[in-house]
Amino acid sequence: MLRYSSPLTQVVIVGLICFLTSGMFNALNGMGGGGQLNTEVAANANVALYTCFAVGGLFAGPIVNKIGPSLAMALGGLTYALYSGSLLYYNHQQQDGFPIASGAILGLGAALLWTGQGAIMLSYPSESNKGEFIGIFWVIFNLGGVIGSIIPLALNWNSTAGSVNDGTYIGFIILMGLGSLMSLFLLSPHKVTRDDGQPVIIQQFPSWKEEITGVLKIFLDWKMLALFPMFIASNWFYAYQFNGVNAFYFNVRTRAFNSLWYWTAQILAAFFFGKLLDWSKFGRKSRGILGISYITIILMGAWIGGLFFQLTYKREDPNVNMDLYNPSYFPRIILFIVYGLYDAVYQCFAYWIMGALTNDTNVLARYAGYYKAVQSAGGAISWRIDAVGTSYLVQLIICWALLAISIPFAFLVVLKIKQTNYDSKSIKEKVAATNNSEISA
C-alpha cells in the first residue's frame, strides 16, 4: 500500500496536476491554432507565452525553493485556466489582445509549475528508479493530452468546421482549475521519506543573493552549456508539427484525432523508455549511451518520413482539410504517432540526464528552471518563425538540424555520468543536516 508521504505518491500527484493543466493545454495546442481556424492568433500568443516562460524559468528555481513546490504549482495552474478562457473570449470577440496577454501570464505561471514539477520528479526518487519515476510521470501527464483530445473530438465529431465550439474551452477551464486546486495537496519536501527511511535531500533556503548566484553559476557549468542544444530543441518542433502539419492539413475532428494518438504514443514511449533507463543489467553510463542511441535512430527515422510528407505540399497552398475517412489518411497518422514517440523519449532523456548529475533538490530546481527557460526560448523563436509565415519546409529543416546537433553534445555529458552521486561529501552532509533538523523538531 502506498504511503501518502512516499516519493511515488507525490510524483503521481504531480503527474495528475500536470495532467489537468499542461496536459490539457497540450491537447488544445496540439490541434493547431489553439483550436482556432486562424492559427496566427495562437502563434502570437505562444510567442508571448514562451518568451515570458524563458525569462521566468531562470528565476523560478529560487522562487520554488522559497515558497515550496505546492504553492508554486497552484499559482502556475491558475494561469492555464486563464489562457483557455481567453480563447473562449476570442471565439466571440475576435480580438487577439486578451489571448496574447494571457499567453504572457501563462508563461510566467508555467515556469513556476514546471520548475516545481522538475524539482519533485528528479529529487524524490532514488538513483535506481529515476527513469521509472520519469516514465510514470510522463504517462500520467500525457493522459491529459489523450483525454484532452477526446473532449474536442467528441464535441466536434459531427463538425467539419475549422475551429472548436465553446463547450470545449469551458471543459478545459474547469479541468485546469481542478489541477491548480490539487497542487495544494502536495506535501512539503521535508515531510517526504523514501521506503528505506531516508529523507529527501533538502536544505534551508539560504538567501536571495545565494540563490541568484546559484542560478548564474549554471551558465558556467560546462555540462549545462553542453545540454543547451538539447534543451532549446526540445519544444522547437511543436510550432511546425501542430500548425504546419496538423492545423494546415486536417479538419478539426481529424486534428483532435491526430492529437489523441500523438499523446497516446508518448505514454507508451515514456513507459518503456523509463524502464530502459533503469535497466539494472547495465551501469548508469551504459544506460545513458543506450538511451541516446535509441533516440538518434527514432529521431532520424521520424524526420526522414516528415521530409517526404512535407515535399507534397507548401504553405502557399490552400488548407487541405483532410478528413480521417480519406483513403490517403493512414500513412499521415503513422507519421504523427512517430512524432509523438520521439518527443517523449527526447524529453524524458533530458530529465534523466539532469537527475543523473545530482540528487540535491535545490540544485535540481535550478536545473529544471534553466531547462524550461532554454526550452521556452526555443519555443518562442519557433512560434515567431511560424507566425511571420516562414515556409514549412524551412521550419522542418531547422527542427531537424537542431535536434541532430544536440545529440553529440548530450553524448559528452552522458560520458561524465557517475554510477552514483551518493558518495558525494556535500550530499552526505545535507542528509545529516536533514536528519538533525527532524530530531530537533
From TrEMBL:
Keyword Transmembrane helix annotated: yes
Matching InterPro entries: Ion_channel_UNC-93, MFS_trans_sf, UNC-93-like_regulator
Residue ranges of the TM segments: 7-27, 47-64, 71-92, 98-122, 134-155, 167-187, 222-240, 260-277, 289-313, 333-357, 392-415
UniProt KW Transmembrane keyword: yes
Membrane topology of this protein: Multi-pass membrane protein
Gene3D superfamilies, per database record: MFS general substrate transporter like domains
Ranges in coiled-coil conformation: none
Record key words, sorted: Membrane, Transmembrane, Transmembrane helix
Major localisation: membrane
SUPFAM superfamilies, A to Z: MFS general substrate transporter
Gene Ontology cellular component annotations, sorted alphabetically: membrane
Subcellular location: Membrane
Protein name: MFS general substrate transporter
The organism of origin for this protein: Gigaspora margarita
Phylogenetic placement of the source organism: Eukaryota, Fungi, Fungi incertae sedis, Mucoromycota, Glomeromycotina
